[in-house]
Amino acid sequence: MGEPQMPGFKLKGRFIGLLTASLAASAVCVTAGPAAAYSGTTASAYADKYATSPNSSLYPVFGSDCTNFVSQAVHAGGYPFRNPYQSTTSVTNWWIYSNQLHTEFSWSQTWSVAVSYHNFLVDDYPGGIPEGTASGSSTAYWDPNAVTEGDVLFYDWGQGEGISHAAIQVGYGTDPNLYPNQVWDGNYVDEHTSNRYHAFWSLKPYNAYYATTTIYFMHIDAAN
After folding, report:
1. What Å distances lie between residue 62 and 65, 108, 121, 142, CA to CA?
2. Which residues contact 17 (CB under 8 A, 6 or more apart)?
3. Would you call 130 helix, strand, or coil by DSSP?
4. DSSP string, 130-148
5. Which residues of 26-65 are buried (b: 16+ CB within 10 A; e: fewer)?
6. How many CB atoms neighbour CB 93 within 10 A?
7. I need a surface site. Which of 21, 60, 64, 119 has the fewest CB within 10 A?
8. DSSP SS3 for 69
9. Within 10 Å of residue 190's Cβ, how many Cβ atoms?
């Protein structure tokens, strides 16, 4: 949870401004190679692998890492970059790049900020398909049937910040973070900040603001 990470440039652990024309002209490499079409299963497998141990060998790790983590998983699932090297703030652009050693990074705001990523998925084509909302106080076993593994959940804590958190749905079962003292069965998500593997989808057990939270469901179109 926490504040979103704005776009920028990372060099040896220090952020030094926005993408420049000189960087765009320099030799960099794509941080990961996606599949030909979006696979929620592949995205979920990536999320499971890095839910509690971030993929720091290929990507930056932010203090508020939730959307960066979800973007990585969705890209690993086959969602291609949109307009790489272009404006870091445009809602139509979604990308991250690094140098060959993965010590310098540049990225779009949509890659790292929850509300910007939400708006990008709505605006993009085929993009994402909004599938309604739910309350953060929900203890239901499942969220909408149209939302499957590899889809994205966005959270507005109801504290005046708007959408400020993202997680990725990865399966169904018992939340292992709570078992055996509490048994929460249902769809579960992986998330960063805090780093959790197979957390109950509404996050109610972890969320002090569950009574005011609204969750937005986003199905990722397989045609991407």
Report:
1. 5, 14, 22, 30
2. 8, 9
3. strand
4. EEEEEETT---S---TT--
5. eebeebeebeeebbbebbbbbbbebbeebbeeebbebebb
6. 23
7. 21
8. helix
9. 26
